[in-house]
Design brief:
By secondary structure, this protein is α/β, with parallel strands linked by helices. The protein folds into two domains: 54 residues, no CATH class; 136 residues, no CATH class. 27% of the residues lie in helices and 15% in strands. It has five helices and ten strands, in the order H-E-E-H-E-E-E-E-H-H-E-E-H-E-E. Strands 5-8-9-10 form a four-stranded mixed sheet, with helices on one face. Strands 1-2 form a two-stranded antiparallel sheet. A two-stranded parallel ribbon has the order 3-6. The longest helix has 17 residues. The radius of gyration is 18 Å and the shape is globular.
Length: 193
Amino acid sequence: MIARSEDLEALVARASGARVVAYACPSDKKARLAGVEPGRVAAIHESGGFDLTLVKADGARLRWLKAPGPHEPVLPPACSTLIPVVSIRAVAKPLDHLVAHRPELVAELVGARLGDAITTDHVARLLVHPRGGMKYADRVDRVVPVINMVDNAEQKYTARLIADQVLRLSPGLERVVLTCMVSQNPVIQVVTR
């Protein structure tokens, strides 16, 4: 459902019997939706009687990697879990605007140059960087990095290398999840310590 932020609570409450409810606000930008005011997310969660509310707090503009801007991610006050997401498809591609949102910032965070081939090391460092995937990690109870688009055995192997490095680089993380969201079973593997 799409409605003004102040109207969503009542609309979502009426849909409380539904298993999944997706909602957003209209946007002035063509072919886009706007997010809900962060302070309203908890009230909408309560009115819908949900067990879980997922919030897209930071989009990558259809790119496989991104570095958050100064105002991102936009976390609701009651956020308990941060889920930074990257795509395995970025590995071996040149670091540019076709693959990464804010490629200059990604390059700065991972110690690369624009045009360099993206390595597993780059992806792991982006996920654990305090201005990358771990930005605002101090505001939540846990961080669970996700490596998405793991579509085949070769990508699973590469994603596993990244996950192992992420866990080595960031001792506070407990797991990294490998996914393929277009699969009937989207969780490919949960890599733990």
